[in-house]
Amino acid sequence: MKTLIVGIGALGGLIAARLRAAGLPVWLPTRDAEQADWLRASGLRVTGMGSAVNVQATAIAPLDAYAAHDGFELVVLATKAHDAIEAAPKLSVLLGPNATLLPIQNGGVPQMLADRVGDCVLGGLSNLGATMETPGVYEQRNDGHLLIGELGAGESERTEQVQRCLGRAVKVCTTNNFRGAVWSKLLVNCSVTTIGAIAGCTMREFINAANGKEIFNRTYDEALSIALACGAWPERMLVDPIPPGWCGRSVASEAHDAWIGQLLKGYGDVKPSMLQDIQRGRPTEIDFINGYVVSVARRLGVPAPLNAMIVETVHSITAGKNVPNPALLGPALQAGIGNSGFGP
């Protein structure tokens, strides 16, 4: 498939490099000519898990240089959520007949894009842990995969076609329950990625810090309750989305500790992407992650105080009022518990 990868950050760069190494036709748009020149000179390199890759960055130009006559069969949208919404109208013009726009973002982004550009959108999520060391240099941090599926559920020929194409570069799985998969990823993002961003460290580090395990459990429990309340049934990804013995809240047990251990195996040493954004002074996706959970809860008329407090804490960090630190977890936890009306 003639493929355009939009967003050459950690995830997009990793996919682009591995596609190029597999000999597949892939084009890479950049923000401007300067970035294109830089990547053309440096090439694309992948280290970490999986095979090492070092390829030239050919077929690379500013996004504005591409036009309707390019007729891409597949556009992989690997930008941040806010950039994806902004770029969608331009990208839909670049699609050839019966082509596919595959966003790989968190929360409700795929459905929001479908509402804007139509049925060309195929749902996508990523379980790949990646870090961009410098532009063009990426480290794969886990043995994860892409998950794709139709927004309206069910199987389709295009899902299989995209899987065959991208599967030559990275592991790609399909699902008939994409809505459930969205919530499965949200559960991890709300409790692993965001808490790590607030604490300024990996999950393995914050889970052993004061208040770390409790804020993780309570945030996860709250998001899971809202997922079930809205009629979604989260899918298994790296772990079963329903923790062992779960009864509306997590129950301490050896089985639950083993469940957390599975999460740590997959995500424990991955530097949270939101933390990377904060450190680079970039906008975060907090409003599309915990903020999305809060918006769904509000629609259902149910409380989501801890997720709301986490959103507030991240906004305070990006506004310069706080810096990521494990010491922020205690106040966020206590404020969330206090606003819920329930005690410890």
Radius of gyration: 20 Å
Let me know the number of strands: 12
Query: Ranges with pLDDT <50 over ≥5 residues?
Result: none
Query: Approximately what portion of the residues adopt beta-strand conformation?
Result: 15-25%
Number of domains: 2
Record the strand order, biggest sheet. Answer: 5-2-1-6-7
Q: CATH superfamily membership of the largest domain, which one?
A: NAD(P)-binding Rossmann-like Domain
Topology order in helix (H) and strand (E) letters:
EHEHEEEEHEHEEEEHEHHHHHHHH
Fraction of helical residues: 40-55%
> Helix segment count?
13
Q: What CATH architecture label of the largest domain applies? A: 3-Layer(aba) Sandwich
Subunit arrangement of the protein:
single chain
Could you tell me how far the N terminus lies from the C terminus, measured between alpha carbons in angstroms?
Answer: 54 Å
Instruction: Write down the overall mean pLDDT.
Output: 91
Biggest β-sheet description = 5 strands, parallel
The outline comes out as globular
CATH class of the largest domain: Alpha Beta
**The CATH topology of the largest domain:** Rossmann fold
Structural category:
alpha/beta
Blueprint (SSEs and pairs):
Blueprint: E1 3-6, H1 10-21, E2 26-30, H2 33-42, E3 44-48, E4 53-55, E5 60-62, E6 72-77, H3 81-94, E7 95-103, H4 109-117, E8 123-126, E9 130-134, E10 137-140, E11 146-149, H5 157-166, E12 172-174, H6 178-199, H7 203-206, H8 212-229, H9 254-267, H10 273-279, H11 290-300, H12 305-318, H13 329-340
Parallel strand pairs: 1-2, 1-6, 2-5, 3-10, 6-7, 11-12
Antiparallel strand pairs: 3-4, 8-11, 9-10
Helix pairs in contact: 3-4, 6-8, 6-10, 6-12, 8-11, 8-13, 11-12, 12-13
